[in-house]
Amino acid sequence: MITVHHLNESRSQRILWLLEELGLEYQIQFYQRDAKTRLAPPELIAIHPLGKSPVISDGAMIVHESGAIVDYLVRLSGGKLCPAPANADYEKYVQWLHYAEGSAMLPLMLKMYVGRLGDAGAPLHPRIDSEIANHLGYVEQSLEGVQYLVGNEFSAADVQMSFVGEVAGVFGLRSRFPNLDAWIGRLHARPAYQAAIERGGPYAMAR
Q1: 2-7 sheet: strands from edge to edge
Q2: pTM
Q3: Fewest 10 Å CB contacts: which of 57, 95, 167, 191?
């Protein structure tokens, strides 16, 4: 049985969603962020030394990092929600899978952390905002005329990239990118997304 070590208000929500989309059985071990620091509790270190979420266990197998978990679950499902390797869209799918955390999330995370510095972080804001606009603009352009990131077929790459769009929404940026905003709306309307929210508990970014 797959266990999702689920930290509230975190990237692990998209792992619950993917499991619902794939129709794989799973259970949830819940963890709560520290109310002051917003960090994961030390209990997660017992699962993996980094003490981060998401992380899943499947028997003796421990898998961490969102992209690796997505890849593992897709392969476990027999390749659902993934273009066949011989398909021309496969490389596009793989690139989106890695782009989410490899590039797109960095400026958004910097905006969050630097914002906590107050005036001391002010000199960094223009560069960070420029990078966010660059990345969200790229996603916006990529969604022009299509429903999903890999053409008109929903894939696990949409699940992986969803957190980028959700965090952009937290910062009030999505309205500037109508294609991205409409894409997030389509994702949030999916029955499997709603089922994951039901099982995972309150998720402020489901908006």
Answers
A1: 26-31, 2-7, 55-58, 61-64
A2: 0.95
A3: 191
